[in-house]
């Protein structure tokens, strides 16, 4: 009855004590209760004969109080001639309020293995056995499937967003190398935000994280674009270091100011009572600070060490060369 888990309840298992059933709780089994009633007159019986099962059920219901009858009808259903279905109810040892998608799958997989084993050994009439979780807030395993779809959509969004971001940055900066540095910076920001909320807040990929994962890209592209554009505009500077200094001097303060005001606006969400909004506030603040850090430190460091000079990586220069090769432009 305690239904031990495959993982033994250790490590990251949400099941306490290695059991699916919560300590101190019992498994509600109407079939067991019917068998106990039948054993009153048949002490040596281990099962209820098929022909006597419905009569035992009717006798059990008719001798119960009205409130008990209502409870019985919630766990077993019958027509006028036979029993149609019955359920076995128990409370799991996992905390549904803090159950992540991954830990929800742990319970789902254990129950599936248990149910598959019971189905394989069950008589013909009971091989339709299945399990569900209607007590967990949000719809139980059905909601776990929804979260799976959201997570899949997150990675689909990444596969679409990053190529689009790179193309947009190429157009905005006019330089392939700057666009590459910026795209790598944005990827690091996304990984940093999702990693930070998992390490420091204990959040696995869920609804808010999946939705915000793609939104993070939009927020984090801002600062690298401004700094990259200013680096490109320093055409009269002779070296990478001087171009980087020019970009930081003319745009660094604006980036910091814009980041702080956006982070403060996200901080207002901490005043909300709904968990979704406080999560979005946390994700927004992490995104802004990591975006500033990567734009001012990583991206600018890449520009200072490997940044393009002259016409290296220039899209306009490459187009001009192609036009001249094809005879559409003036030759030198």
UniProtKB/TrEMBL annotation:
Signal peptide: none annotated. Keywords: Glycoprotein, Membrane, Transmembrane, Transmembrane helix. The chain crosses the membrane at residues 154-172, 179-200, 206-225, 246-277, 283-306. It is found in: Membrane. Residues 155-310 form the Membrane transport protein MMPL domain. GO terms for molecular function: transmembrane transporter activity. GO terms for cellular component: membrane. It is a multi-pass membrane protein. It comes from Hemiselmis andersenii (Cryptophyte alga). It comes from the Eukaryota. This is Membrane transport protein MMPL domain-containing protein. Pfam families: MMPL.
């Amino acid at each position: 009855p305690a239904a031990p888990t495959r993982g033994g309840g250790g490590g990251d298992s949400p099941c306490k004590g290695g059991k699916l059933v919560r300590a101190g709780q019992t498994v509600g089994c109407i079939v067991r209760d019917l068998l106990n009633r039948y054993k009153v007159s048949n002490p040596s019986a281990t099962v209820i004969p098929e022909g006597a099962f419905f009569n035992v059920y009717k006798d059990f219901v008719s001798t119960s109080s009205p409130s008990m009858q209502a409870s019985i009808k919630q766990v077993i259903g019958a027509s006028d001639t036979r029993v149609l279905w019955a359920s076995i109810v128990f409370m799991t040892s996992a905390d549904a309020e803090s159950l992540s998608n991954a830990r929800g799958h742990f319970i789902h997989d254990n129950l599936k293995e248990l149910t598959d084993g019971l189905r394989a050994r069950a008589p013909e009439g009971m091989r339709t056995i299945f399990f569900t979780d209607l007590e967990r807030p949000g719809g139980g395993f059905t909601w776990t499937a929804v979260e799976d779809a959201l997570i899949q959509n997150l990675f689909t969004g990444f596969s679409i967003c990053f190529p689009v971001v790179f193309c947009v940055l190429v157009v905005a900066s006019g330089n392939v190398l700057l666009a590459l540095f910026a795209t790598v910076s944005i990827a690091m920001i996304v990984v940093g935000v999702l990693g930070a909320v998992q390490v420091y807040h204990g959040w696995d990929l869920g609804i808010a994280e999946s939705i915000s994962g793609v939104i993070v890209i939009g927020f984090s592209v801002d600062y690298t674009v401004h700094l990259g554009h200013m680096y490109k505009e320093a055409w009269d500077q002779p070296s990478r270091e001087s171009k980087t200094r020019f970009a930081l001097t003319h745009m660094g303060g604006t980036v910091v100011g814009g980041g702080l005001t956006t982070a403060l606006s996200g901080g207002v969400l901490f005043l909300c009572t709904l968990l979704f909004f406080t999560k979005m506030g946390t994700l927004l603040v992490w995104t802004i600070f990591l975006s500033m850090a990567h734009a001012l430190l990583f991206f600018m460091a890449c520009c200072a060490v490997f940044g393009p000079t002259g016409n290296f990586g220039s899209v306009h220069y490459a187009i001009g060369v192609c036009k001249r090769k094809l005879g559409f432009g003036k030759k030198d």
